[in-house]
Write the structure tokens for this entry.
Amino acid sequence: MHVSVIGCGYLGAVHAASMAKLGHTVVGVDVDAAKVALLASGTAPFYEPGLPELLREVGGDGRLTFGTDMAAVAGAAVHFLCVGTPQKHGEFRADLTHVEDAFAALLPHLRPGDLVVGKSTVPVGTAEALAERLDGTGATLVWNPEFLREGLAVQDTLHPDRLVYGVPTDDDGVPTADGDRAHRVLDEVYAAPLADGTPLVITDYATAQLVKVAANSFLATKISFINAMAELCEATGADVTRLADAIGYDDRIGRRFLNAGLGFGGGCLPKDIRAFMARAGELGVDQALSFLREVDAINMRRRVRMVDLAREVCGGSIVGRRIAVLGAAFKPDSDDIRDSPALSVAAQMQLQGAQVVVTDPQAVENARQAWPGLTFAATAQEAVVGADVVLLATEWQEYRDLDPAAVGALVARRAVLDGRNVLDPRAWRRAGWTYRALGRP
Ligand code: UDX
């Protein structure tokens, strides 16, 4: 099939390359000329494992092109909307500027029978409003939320754990004739994952939009639940990692997303739960989501607690202390620093008078641009030289694998804060380190 992908960020670039891998002819469109130039030359504009290889693989045969001119979508029958929906400045609501701009630019190029497929995370009600604007064009809107995780984006796109199509429905919630046709077209787009047995949920627009924010809210709640337990563990001398193991053996609970530590960040979970609360307020059901305020508050408290812990191991004050922060990305295998807990803690400590040195295998350049006041080092070995405290803030494999004796030879004082509960406390203590973590004795 011939498809277009509008918006070539973390979601769209991976989606475009993956669609080409599935055998489609793809044109990616983005307003950012620098990003388009990189993609057109087969270079990933951000760090995502597997994406450079995929771009090289599918770029060679001319089935994947990129441009800044929306006219390039002519000839495509399916148009994926993959633009970002960040948090609005100064409020919880989502900023829909990019969705609005992309949709308005696409409209004049649509032909009867085309599908517009929304993948961006939007407040419920957005799809209904966009669908109305397609009246008279003969094109149909489908809402097809995306669940990819950064760091695993290629795998998640090629082998999703489910597909959701929100299609036009009648008053009884039954897909209309256009809805049925849209379903058949998308089945053709996703023929490969469907043939692998990927579960498919066909539903209405509202449900499809809610599925995404509900999923992210559940994940955020799971993380904040275990971080709340970490607070209880800190007050009682219990160990939250053992607690998570023990409750995780219950299939109904499950061990995944029960890793206590610095909590969640990134371009999705924090802004999605806030936009969801804001939307619930507009719909007059704010009470239904008031628990998400607590989820958000627990999450932010972990960052404050980590600064307190640093102060504790420094004997009451971090002023003038040298603190090495390992990790700047919001999670490993990504260079994304949006709402990164690691950088948030690093900046707080710096503001409170510590000399902070941050390192990350991939995110230093992004971090430097956002926080020019911090000091950066290229490697962990460089960052820890002369440190009074070493804080592991993002659990990259190379930080998990650090040898406590070797690191011990470089620091001024052997004090380590394990912000992600991934180091072996016994090994570090045996090597003479003071080991402290969130939710662990
Ligand atoms: C998330 C959703 O997982 C994905 O389905 C959706 O499409 C986009 O948002 P992502 O933002 O890539 O994906 O990151 P995710 O892997 O969910 O991690 C989010 C944050 O939670 C990270 O900061 C991570 O460090 C943190 N986290 C995750 C924990 O603190 N504990 C855990 O147990 C798991």
